[in-house]
Structures are given as C-alpha cells and as structure tokens.
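Section 5: illustrative case.
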C-alpha cells in the first residue's frame, strides 16, 4: 500500500523505496510466503476472545484495503505500534485462503508512521 499523504508523491516514494512494497490489488497476485511491506491508515483492530491472542488489523490507502494478521508473540513484542499507530507500515509475508481468492499479510514487524500525519488537514465528511 502506498499512501500519497501530501499530494506530491512524497509518501509514495517513501514506501516505494522499500523495493518489496505492495498495493492491495497486487498482493492477491503474489505467491504465498513472499516477504513484503504494506502501509496504510489503520481503520480496524480486532482481537476476538476466540482468537487465542491473534490480532486482526485492516489498513487502507487510496488503492484499497488489506488485512493483517498479528500473532500473539509479535503483538506482545511490538505492542506500542500495534495499539497506538494511526498510520502503520507492516513487514511480513503474504498468505492466502485455500482457494487463493483472499490474501492477507502475516506481520513480522510493525513500523509506526503516525508522525507523517502531522500537519495533515483532514476535514470531516459531514452528511446532513
């Protein structure tokens, strides 16, 4: 995922500097086990009681969204980034369901990029 926060491709170039970065639509075409970087705004965090400590994240950028699986061991080691980041880069490996139709990334490293949001004006979309 590449996020153009500033409208001038600065953040896209930043994420693209990681040669293995992917957008949501390209993750599905990649092979299982491929190591990659994805980044996006954290739109969802879930840790269901039945998940035995697994946390599920959804990241989103202008190209779409991607689901991230964070195993308990990774979560415990990187808890600050996991619970505080609003903009997150994840290094991990691509995984898919048995049919290969749904892709997600299993996280190995979480990188908090929230500081890149400073000064970004984000007007709300109010519907009346």
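Designed sequence:
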């Amino acid at each position: 995922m590449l996020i153009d926060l500033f409208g001038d491709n600065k953040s896209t170039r930043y994420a693209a500097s990681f040669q293995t970065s992917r957008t949501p639509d390209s993750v599905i075409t990649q092979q299982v086990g491929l190591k990659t970087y994805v980044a996006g705004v954290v739109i969802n965090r879930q840790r269901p009681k039945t998940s035995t400590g697994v946390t599920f994240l959804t990241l989103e950028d202008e190209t779409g969204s991607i689901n991230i699986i964070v195993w308990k061991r990774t979560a415990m080691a990187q808890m600050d980034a996991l619970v505080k980041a609003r903009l997150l880069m994840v290094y991990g490996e691509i995984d898919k369901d048995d049919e290969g139709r749904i892709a997600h990334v299993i996280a190995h490293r979480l990188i908090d990029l929230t500081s890149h949001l400073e000064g970004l004006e984000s007007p709300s979309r109010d519907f009346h």
